[in-house]
Amino acid sequence: MRIHILGICGTFMGGLAQILKESGHSISGSDNQFYPPMSGHLENLDVEMIKGYSSKSMPDADLYIIGNALSRGNECVEYILDNQLPFRSGPEMLGEILKNRKVLAISGTHGKTTTSYMLAHIFLNQGRDIGFLVGGVSDDIKGSASLGTDNIFVIEADEYDSAFFDKRSKFIHYSPSTLVINNIEFDHADIFDHLDDIKRQFHHLIKIIPSSGEVIYFSDDKNSEDVISKGLWCKSTVINDNEIKISFEEQELEYKGIAYSLAGLPLIGLHNFKNYIAAILAAKTDDIAINDSIESLKSFNGVKRRLEYKGKFSNIHLYDDFAHHPTAIMFSSQAIRMKYPEKKILGLIELGSNTMSGGSHGLELLDTVACLDNAVWLDHKNVLSDGNNITSSDNIEDFINQTKLILSEYDIILLMTNKDSHKILKPLISYLEKK
């Protein structure tokens, strides 16, 4: 089948392109921009890439897949509708491919990408040729997607909507048999009005998990507990209950009276400790022993832009993190403080997500970096700046210049943004290398 993907350069749609290609389809795709690493990946897949959304340049296809960044008014979308051409959303298409697979889905506001890669790494390290589709890039796994030959398929399960014509959350289409809920908080203010809207989507997802399936969640996450209380029709694994206890201080998991040590695993911070636990227990639903999972995770080196160490420049250590939400900013800040308790740490934070840049989180953002020595904020819409004694800018050039003025006072720089971090990192690294 000839399939054309509109919005192909995103991590999800690019991963879907690979899976469709491995399934035997001929794939082409359109997007406004083609940028690495996805552009190079699509080239290696021999995918025809068309820049822009002119209907005149859109090829004939048996099916068109429309990404959720596109809406009515887009020339290609209007052409498809006017000519009654067959179309689907990306999540719906992936759901059809996964109908006969055992899907292990990793959901939640934070930790989806890292936990998904941890789980995929466990299976692959154990010699299983699983399928997977994960956002982001891991140095330990080639590519962000694979069809695989094993019955298992690991997926990063997002609550964002599927397309302009399908407002269901993406994860509804995947029909998982194992669901991890890392945590639930308010996010995606561009499509959800309230936290209860997000909880409702998780409730809908739990409704379709078969009775033989399993939900894994943390008992100390109130919003996850609220969702579970609305109804559960399958098995559950409750982390931090009577049978499963975890201790971050002791780096230990106690499962049904047996203690397992996670000391020495490479990733730092409470959030990564919880990610480890979730991945280990998800793997156990397919009979991977806890000790085997721990052993496999010793060789997992993390995900790019998740507290990624970029190197030492002019005696300053530089970290790049994808933090997109107040809780993620707090977790990353605390992890770096724990690693460097005596060092002077500067946080560089861009309010990049629609939710943060729109001011939905209010002044609680300022408290998330309380453990750092100082912070500079890239606040495009000035939602924090008015009346607050903070260092901030509403444009990237001024933000970088303000940072340069104080860089030399610090030992550690932690950049946190879900936008293109290279626009900030490159000029800062160049400046430091010249000193």
Unreliable segments (pLDDT under 50, ≥5 consecutive)? none
Determine the CATH superfamily of the largest domain.
Mur-like, catalytic domain
What top-tier CATH class of the largest domain fits best? Alpha Beta
What's the total helix number?
A: 14
Question: Care to describe what's here?
Answer:
The chain has 435 residues and is α/β, with parallel strands linked by helices. It folds into three domains: 2-88, Rossmann fold; 98-297, UDP-N-acetylmuramoyl-L-alanine:D-glutamate ligase, CATH 3.40.1190; 308-433, Alpha-Beta Complex (Protein-Tyrosine Phosphatase, Chain A), CATH 3.90.190.20. Helix content is 32%, strand content 23%. It has 14 helices and 23 strands. It has helices at residues 11-22, 38-44, 75-82, 90-97, 112-125, 195-207, 222-229, 270-284, 290-297, 326-339, 354-357, 364-367, 396-406, 422-433, and strands spanning 2-6, 26-31, 48-51, 63-66, 87-89, 102-107, 131-133, 145-146, 152-156, 161-163, 166-169, 178-181, 214-218, 235-239, 244-247, 252-255, 258-261, 308-313, 316-321, 345-350, 374-378, 391-393, 412-416. A seven-stranded mixed sheet has the order 8-7-9-6-12-13-14, sandwiched between helices. Helix 7 links the parallel strand 13 and strand 14. The longest helix has 15 residues, at 270-284. The protein is globular, with a radius of gyration of 22 Å.
